[in-house]
Amino acid sequence: MTLSSHKAGMTRRSFVGLAAATSISVLLSSCSTSGEGASAQKIKFWDMPMGNERFNALDKQIVSEYKPAAGLADVTYQVIQWNNFPAVFASAVASGTGPAVSSGGGTTVFEYVSKGKIAYADHLIESWKKNGIYDDILPGLLDQLKTKDGHQAAVPQNLSAIVMYYSPSLLEKANVAPPKDWQTYLEAAAALKKIGVYGLGTGAGAGNFQGGQTIVSWMIMNGGGLFNEDQQPDCVTDRNIEAVDFLIEMVRKGYSDPGAPTYTTTNVSAQWKAQKFGLGFDVPTLPDNVGAGWDGVIGSPMVGPHGDKGTLCFINNIMLWNDSPSQKSGEAFLTYYFQNMAPLWTKGTMTALPPLKSIINTKEFQADKNLMAVVNEWQPVMKTWAAPGKAMGANTPLVDGTSPMADFAQNVLGGKVTAKEALVTLQSALMSSVKS
User: Fold this and answer.
1) What 8-state DSSP symbol labels residue 322?
2) Is the pLDDT of residue 347 over 90?
3) Backbone torsion region of residue 254, taken as left when φ is above 0, otherwise alpha when ψ lies between -120 and 50, otherwise beta
4) Under a CB-based contact definition with an 8 Å cutoff, are residues 320 and 204 in contact?
């Protein structure tokens, strides 16, 4: 997710109608010119609220301390809020007032790659191979941000994922061990039900996309997912049906809270806090959302019935835009930014995982046992929305915080449909908007 927190992680994937774009454009600064112009013209860096309430102040400070080399442009900083951000980007790009460098939603870059608006980071990556940044990036992250034909669409800024949580005290009370596979998950959920606790903690209410993300994570855990190698929706597969059928079985057995289809992220956190959820799936920042006094810990990845491991991850990224006064200046700034971004984590403002091994190795980061569990156990098996395909593409945004995915999650967690019916409905909805 998410990023980071639930507040950011959920709304950042919300797609908003472009009808709002016109009114938003008046809030944006005047348009920039293209080409490698004089250093007098500054380039714009747009960043999202990727961390807690202190994140953007420190982020802005890091940017303000950038001193470009002679002949390169300086950088201005602007925060783009998660609320309505797709329309903000759409309006700016259409009017030529967009950024030279920006973050965005996890799939934003692939929407604009398909529109020819993104400057590939291939040259930047080659330079990073010479200064050490390339080797510092966690394995696999760069590859998952490549286009189907091998171009580097963006570089990773932070990452999050859906991981398994459990309450040790509640499992002990239920006299059951943390699950290692699907069968032991059923056993744990059944044991929790006997003490009045739910074993499939999640929600799919307004603005809460965790429910759908959790369901997709179970698909990935079973070797499935939503897209094929051709980047086309491919929802109705045997592995996906098996995974969704398993979840619907848990819903019908009463292992999931009947309120789950309507639960917001606040509701979900409250259920964990009230010890009504003893086992479930969420993003790594769940402890921050639940608050002090909760004993929840991150478990190890389970093994699926066919021997697979995996989960859904969100690689929030930074992209270079074609509409820039100077691509060289944008690349130089991004190099500086990656070389100086560590305080965002070491000073406790970033609640997602860092993309750099050097930040993970700091004593400040390693003090968080839950996050270290994500790095050591979950990161190696993470897959993006493209799974079981390899590369994200123009169709990926169709499932990232959209109405079809919200409807799908509510249908599954409602338990009144079959797995195949839910997947066929999702496939039909996605195909109505698919891009070739």
Assistant:
1) S
2) yes
3) left
4) no
The per-residue pLDDT for range 83-109, each reduced to its tens digit, is: 788 899 999 999 999 999 999 989 999
Nearest to 325 by CA among 129, 5, 101, 88: 101
How is domain 163-312+387-431 classified at the CATH fold level?
D-Maltodextrin-Binding Protein; domain 2 (3.40.190)
Starting at the earlier edge strand, list the strands of the sheet with 163-166. 279-282, 163-166, 297-298
CA–CA gap between residue 92 and residue 88 (Å, rounded): 6
Burial class (CB in 10 A: 0-12, 13-18, 19+), 306: exposed
Q: Provide CATH 3.40.190.10 ranges for the chain.
A: 6-161+314-383, 163-312+387-431
Q: Please tell me the predicted confidence (pLDDT) of residue 285.
A: 83
Q: pTM of the entire structure?
A: 0.86
Nearest to 159 by CA among 265, 298, 11, 9: 9
Q: How far apart are CA 210 and CA 11, in angstroms?
A: 11
Rounded to 10 degrees, the C-alpha dihedral 404/203/217/198 comes to -140
Q: Which CATH architecture has domain 6-161+314-383?
A: 3-Layer(aba) Sandwich (3.40)
